[in-house]
Amino acid sequence: MNNKSLNSKLWLVVALVISMYGCTSNVKQELTPLQIQAFQTHEFEASKAIVFGSVVSVFQDLGYIVESADKDTGFITAGSASMNKTGFWEAMSGMASSGKTKVTAFVEGIRPGFISVRLNFVDTKESSSQYGRQSKNDQPILDPKPYQVAFDKIEEAVFIRKGAS
Predict the structure, then answer these.
(1) Domain limits, the chain
(2) Is CATH 3.30.310.80 what the domain over 30-164 is classified as, yes or no?
(3) Half-sphere exposure of residue 20, counting CA atoms within 13 Å on the CB side?
(4) b vs e for 118-144, b when ≥16 Cβ sit within 10 Å of the residue's Cβ?
(5) What gap in Å lies between CA 68 and CA 87, rounded to an integer?
(6) pTM of the predicted protein model
(7) How do residues 100-124 score in pLDDT, each as one tens digit?
(8) How far apart are alpha carbons 161 and 152 in whole angstroms?
(9) Of 8, 37, 118, 132, which is least packed with CB atoms within 10 Å of its CB?
């Protein structure tokens, strides 16, 4: 085997390894249910009434329309205003899409003086064609940042309500 043949085989192996690395780096890492629960849940040192009111108030401050809120069960549902989500290729094929973000909250006492809040944000998209075909796609938001922003605002609201009582 000559050097030229060896060099070309070596380059082929290097190119193969690089291309395989590129393929594996694009794979999304799946979050475990425990990891998701960790960033969706936050604990507050306050009464359930204060925390529940703070969550409803923050949802409204963030532009959500509160659809239901039941202090006894601790369950709150809200949704953002609908917006146009039609992409270029959808429009070219006669499709129209709209959607909004929905959020639910579960507020529960976990031990005396401590309240747990679990949030769940879901991005929705509804599409319809000029021929009447409809589809709906709900996608959970699994980025921790929006949850942290909401919890920071709830923390501020709890602080203000505790000071006022």
Answers:
(1) 30-164
(2) yes
(3) 6
(4) ebebeebbbbeeeeeeeeeeeeebeee
(5) 31
(6) 0.74
(7) 899 999 999 999 999 999 999 999 8
(8) 14
(9) 132
